[in-house]
């Protein structure tokens, strides 16, 4: 049994996938940590998380599962809302900036790729270099748009759940936190059971793919 049999993606695409994910996960977690620090919470700062060094943000198991199952995670950023001057509002902002950072990365990736194409870089490069650029940006753009949508799903441990929890009255939030383990079990069942994934998660993630393709199309219309 070879390595390819364990992977969800073509082995030759692995370097592009890993690089795209490292950037996406690192910026996402940095956005959480930096915004919390700017709002007065030094918890993440003291833990060394206000940095763009991927080593402090990546979770080994979470990254491996992305490659094997198409699903994974980075290390959660520690946040102490009690240090915020407006705990509920600032907690929501700190949570939202993570997914928004992936949306921004996806848009930036689109315009860099289309800009390179418009400048004739792909056409003037060797076939190998041109193919490498196309493969990297294909994964980089799609993953960042997918992570934007994926993290807004209101199930723990995703950002969407934390946003919903922060919007709820304290009594309801307390009950939600008491039952968070059931939400995580449901989430894992959806991710790892193909029939459940096809009818629940896949339609949601298709929105991310649609956003990526539409943004790419609009960028091409702008440059050409």
Number of helices: 11
Rg value: 19 Å
Helices and strands, in N-to-C order? Answer: HHHHHHHHHHH
Biggest beta sheet summary: none
What does this protein look like?
This protein is 71% helix and 0% strand. It has one domain. The chain is globular. Helix 4 (87-118) crosses helix 11. With 224 residues, it is mostly helical. It has helices spanning 14-38, 43-46, 60-69, 87-118, 121-124, 127-150, 159-167, 170-178, 180-192, 194-199, 201-223.
Can you lay out the helices and strands and say which pair or pack?
Blueprint: H1 14-38, H2 43-46, H3 60-69, H4 87-118, H5 121-124, H6 127-150, H7 159-167, H8 170-178, H9 180-192, H10 194-199, H11 201-223
Helix pairs in contact: 1-4, 1-6, 4-6, 4-7, 4-11, 6-11
List key phrases describing it:
globular
Summarize the structure.
The protein is an all-alpha fold and 224 residues long. Helices cover 71% and strands 0% of the residues.
């Amino acid at each position: 049994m070879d390595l390819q049999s364990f992977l969800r993606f073509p082995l030759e695409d692995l370097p592009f996938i890993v690089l795209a994910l490292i950037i996406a996960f690192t910026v996402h977690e940095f956005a959480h940590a930096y915004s919390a620090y700017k709002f007065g919470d030094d918890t993440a700062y003291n833990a060394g998380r206000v940095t763009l060094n991927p080593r402090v943000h990546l979770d080994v198991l979470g990254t491996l599962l992305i490659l094997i199952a198409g699903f994974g995670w980075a290390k959660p950023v520690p946040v102490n809302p009690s240090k915020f001057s407006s705990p509920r509002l600032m907690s929501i902002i700190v949570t939202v900036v993570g997914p928004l950072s992936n949306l921004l990365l996806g848009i930036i990736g689109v315009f860099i790729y289309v800009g390179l194409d418009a400048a004739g870089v792909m056409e003037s490069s060797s076939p190998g270099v041109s193919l490498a650029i196309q493969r990297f940006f294909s994964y980089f753009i799609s993953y960042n748009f997918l992570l934007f949508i994926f993290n807004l799903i209101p199930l723990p441990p995703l950002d969407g759940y934390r946003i919903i929890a922060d919007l709820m009255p304290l009594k309801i939030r307390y009950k939600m936190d008491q039952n968070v383990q059931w939400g995580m079990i449901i989430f894992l069942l959806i991710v790892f059971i193909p029939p459940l994934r096809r009818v629940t998660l896949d339609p949601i993630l298709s929105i991310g793919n649609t956003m990526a393709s539409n943004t790419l199309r609009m960028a091409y219309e702008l440059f050409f």
